[in-house]
From TrEMBL:
Keywords in alphabetical order: Cytochrome c-type biogenesis, Disulfide bond, Redox-active center, Signal
Principal localisation: other
Record SUPFAM superfamilies: Thioredoxin-like (SSF52833)
Organism: Pedobacter zeae
Signal peptide per UniProt: 1-17
Protein name: Peroxiredoxin
GO cellular component, one term: cell envelope
Pfam family, one: AhpC-TSA
Subcellular location: Cell envelope
Length: 374
């Protein structure tokens, strides 16, 4: 009998432990159009966990087996799209989803401390960015109604305010990190912001302001590695060594560098790279006799294909590859796995320019550094 009761008790414990309690969303939804949709997405793999038509009223929906972790609530109402970060876990989420107040965080009550941290973040964000959002909205409206005579002026104004918005977002994360140094949400927010390669110093400063436990978390260690990776490619640092060989078996040597050098990270099977090659060939002819060198670094795996495109596209500047594809240390160290990617170095391999250096600006950047301007 005792054995039987033990089995019942054990079964009950196991059943309770495995009880898939849902995440329940109880939202007041209003001011959305007839085809508006709300969805919940995992931030880890962008999997859509739930999607519902917005009904404008007291709306309830569930995720029956929520996977604990960072997630995104998204709304789409015709062309209007918004997204908000939160922490998904079992329990009750309450709030207001208002299509007329798209910048207002929807959750007012959440089941976990991690969720409360996002409520605090969005409160801080609202206080810091209200005037900026208003100015951006005005600029975007003026651009929408611009005439042919002033459209370029209005587009430039929108770009300025959008960049100010990006910079404000980083300042908001910085302020949140200072106020809540024990929160891993800062790591998540920095990852989502996605500018470790162009805002490296600011990223490192924010990261160092966090508690040691946060820095040494799994997410923290991964972000720190990305920051350090980006840091070594910042202007003023010496670029990592280029691995691999030329098609005829010569290894990279700094002695080939000239006064200004354009490093081109590319792959032979990319249509974009092939289009870029046409422009680069003309640029090389323009600069090759002005103490400038181009250096190709390919992330190819097939040597025959790589050599064939070099010949077909008439790429006569030095070309290197270790033929390891995405596993190449070049891919990690030089361009953070981006191809195509451009940066400039001097005769000693010191990085001159790499932040947002697109093919459109290569010509002007080469001229600038040849003229001795920084």
């Amino acid at each position: 009998m005792k054995k039987y009761l033990c089995i019942i008790a054990l079964s009950a414990c196991l059943f309770t432990a495995c009880d898939p309690k849902p995440a329940v969303f109880e939202l007041e939804t209003k001011n959305f159009g007839p085809n508006a949709v709300v969805s919940i997405q995992s931030s880890e793999n962008n999997e859509t966990l739930k999607a519902e038509n917005i009904t404008n009223g007291n709306q309830t929906f569930k995720i029956n087996i929520p996977k604990k972790g960072y997630a995104i609530l998204k709304t789409q109402d015709n062309e209007n799209k918004e997204e908000f970060y939160f922490y998904l876990d079992k329990g009750s989420y309450k709030g207001i989803l208002d299509g007329a107040k798209s910048n207002t965080y929807p959750f007012t009550a959440v089941p976990t401390q991690q969720g409360e941290e996002f409520i605090n973040f969005y409160k801080l964000k609202k206080n810091m960015s209200k005037n900026l959002f208003d100015s951006l909205a005005i600029a975007e409206h003026e651009f929408d109604i611009a005439t042919r005579s002033n459209i370029m002026e209005k587009a430039k104004k929108v770009d300025i305010w959008r960049e100010k918005k990006h910079q404000s977002e980083l300042e908001e994360i910085k302020a949140f990190a200072k106020k809540y140094p024990t929160s891993e949400a800062t790591i998540f927010l920095l990852n989502r912001f996605g500018r470790a390669d162009s805002e490296t110093k600011k990223y490192l400063s924010i990261f160092k302001s966090l508690d040691q436990d946060v820095q040494e978390s799994k997410m923290g260690k991964k972000l720190f590695a990305e920051i350090m990776q980006a840091n070594q490619m910042m202007a003023g640092n010496k670029m990592p060594n280029i691995e691999g060989e030329t098609p005829d078996g010569k290894k990279f040597d700094l002695s080939i560098l000239k006064r200004v050098n354009l490093v081109i990270c590319w792959v032979s099977y990319s249509g974009k790279s092939r289009k870029n090659n046409k422009v680069l060939v003309d640029l090389y002819e323009k600069y090759r006799h002005q103490n400038v060198e181009f250096i190709g670094v390919s992330y190819d795996k097939n040597k025959d294909s790589w050599e064939k495109i070099i010949k077909a596209d008439k790429l006569i500047w030095p070309q290197y590859s270790d033929l390891l594809g995405a596993k190449s240390p070049n891919a990690k160290n030089l361009s953070n796995y981006n191809a195509t990617y451009f940066f400039l170095v001097d005769k000693n391999g010191i990085v001159l320019s790499n932040n947002d250096l697109t093919l459109d600006f290569v010509d002007s950047e080469l001229s600038k550094y040849l003229a001795g301007r920084k």
